[in-house]
Amino acid sequence: MAERIGIYPGTFDPMTKGHLHIIKRASRLVDRLIIAVADNPKKNPLFTTEERLALVRTDIENLHDKACPIEVEAFSELLIHYAHKKGGTCLFRGLRAVSDFEFEFQMTGMNAKLAPDIETVFLMASDKWQFVSSSFIKEICSLGGNVAEFVTPNVEKQLLEKFKISA
Question: What is the pLDDT of residues 149-160, one digit of tens each?
Answer without folding.
Answer: 999 999 999 999
